Amino acid sequence: MRIVTWNCCRGPVSGKLPVLAALSPSVTVIPECPEPVDTNSMLWFGNNPRQGIAVAASGPYRISPAETRDVPPYAFPVQVTGPTSFLLLAIWSQRNPDFRYVRAVIRAVEIYRDLIVSQPTVIAGDFNSNTIGTTSDNPRRTTAA
Questions:
Q1: Which of 15, 72, 87, 128 allows an S-S link to 93, with CB 3.0 to 4.6 Å?
Q2: pTM score, two decimals?
Q3: Cα angle for residues 76, 83, 118 (degrees, 5° grid)
Q4: What are the structural domains of the chain?
């Protein structure tokens, strides 16, 4: 099994999909992508047709949306079934009035904790985070990311 996450940077995704396909992913998470024309082969979540998050599966793997809850945008649970079944928490972390990037991911994990501990889980996507942006890794920062 190969899991790939690729941020398409809000650009058109159709011309880039062959490059992604060359990686032969079993499951793919694509943050910042426009709503695909063919939604039969993937799940797409978003409020704006120009940018959202897509999840695709290939080969023996299948995906279906899991129970969504009121979480900071965008964190979507997806049930993956196949030779290895698991819960996928697809992430495209965004800043909002209540939570900044890293805190939004942490909050999503807290909200989905019962699902996460009940089965094997993969959390993948765009966390919009790095070692510079967190106080634990950069003592010059005085606020949590």
A1: 128
A2: 0.83
A3: 50
A4: 3-126 (3.60.10.10)
